[in-house]
């Protein structure tokens, strides 16, 4: 199954359907085997100790996987997360953006499985790894 939605289409979809995240989360790259999304980290994303909060990193991973799936199946607003695991591996820098590098591992008719590595600007090693399964609603 090839690419159906490109960078512009995904960012437009987010703006229209999820205005609460529009502008903060931006799809930068859509390739057959990789989607890259950026979060512009602000003070609102930090927790005590000078690091990006876990819920912020989870949200970035979840949104990146969602967009990677939509890039392949089209704008299906009701695709939802059914399982998620996240490993926090390193402390992200408080002053840098985060990027999510997402790969779809399996895309079936009703389930999609994907992995994301999160990177903090200025660090070479990933700060977190997330694996998720999404449920894809039946076509009507």
TrEMBL record:
Pfam families according to UniProt: 4HBT (PF03061)
CDD domains: PaaI_thioesterase
Domain Thioesterase: 49-125
InterPro entries (UniProt xref): HotDog_dom_sf, PAAI_dom, Thioestr_dom
UniProt keyword annotation of Hydrolase present: yes
Alphabetical keyword list: Hydrolase
Name under which the protein is recorded: PaaI family thioesterase
Organism: Paracoccus onchidii
């Amino acid at each position: 199954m090839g690419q159906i939605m490109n960078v512009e289409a995904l960012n437009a979809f987010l703006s229209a359907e999820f205005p609460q995240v529009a502008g903060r989360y931006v799809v930068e790259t859509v390739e057959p085997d990789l989607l890259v999304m950026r979060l512009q980290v602000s003070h609102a994303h930090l927790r005590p100790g000078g690091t990006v909060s876990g819920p912020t990193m989870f949200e970035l991973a979840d949104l990146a996987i969602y967009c990677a799936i939509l890039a392949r199946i089209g704008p299906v607003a009701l695709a939802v997360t059914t399982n998620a695991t996240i490993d926090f591996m390193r402390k992200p820098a408080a002053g840098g953006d985060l990027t999510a590098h997402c790969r779809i591992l399996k895309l079936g008719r009703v389930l999609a499985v994907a992995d994301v590595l999160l990177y903090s600007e200025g660090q070479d090693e990933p700060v977190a790894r997330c694996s998720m399964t999404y449920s894809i609603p039946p076509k009507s």
